[in-house]
Amino acid sequence: MKIVVVGGTGLIGSQVVALLRDSGHEAVAAAPSTGVDTLTGEGLAQALTGADVVVDVPNSPSFDPEPALDFFTRSERNLTEAEKEAGVRHHVVLSIVGVDQVPDYGYYRAKVAQEEAVRNSGVPYTIVRATQFFEFIAPVMDMTTEGTEVHLPSLRLRPMASADVAADVADAALGEPLYGVRDIAGPEVERLDRLGEITLAAKPDGRSIVTDEAASPFAGMPDGVLIGDDTARLASTRYEDWLKQS
């Protein structure tokens, strides 16, 4: 199959492209750097010519509510219109576990709007909702560092390796459209402050963890939203093992 991976040069997209190519498929990385811009529509028609499937994994350059909403809704409108013209038969979009349970979070509202645009596009679709990536833990810690203290809340997460996310997205791309959602999550539930402790135990840098419920981008997030439910497909990679490997 020809599978166009929008956002195919990013963390998830580049791994999806590699997996699909290893499986013998024609995987095309579509991104502004390769001449494809979903915000303007530039290069979309050419990239999607002959495409069977589109994998939709780019991220907004801004986490602020209004720019994120504009990015996701405008991109989806241009992308799905081009897909219908090209006869694409399956649209796979990556979203976030629990995204529809936190209406006060502007970025999450933007992702919900993206999901709705895909549902209403008329293109057969699958929505893959993933928990937070392991790769996100260290940047959050850097954001909440004050001197030698890392302030993190005790919010529970079920994070997973980006490689496991990419594998599930690639699997979805090779399957039939679900016309619905599939959740994927990591193998273990951990508190965010505990994940910080695990990180510093593996890679000491002189900092220490302070439990602070008002810290981090997740301050005020209802507990339990970010871990998924019993229907989630669980990945196998543990955070401690990933830290050793990385």
Automatic annotation (TrEMBL):
InterPro entries hit by this protein: NAD(P)-bd_dom, NAD(P)-bd_dom_sf, NmrA-like_oxidored
Which intervals of the chain form a coiled coil? Answer: none
Q: Which residues form the NAD(P)-binding domain?
A: 14-138
Magnesium listed as a keyword: no
Pfam families of this UniProt entry? NAD_binding_10
Keyword entries, A-Z: NADP
Q: By what name is this protein known?
A: NAD(P)H-binding protein
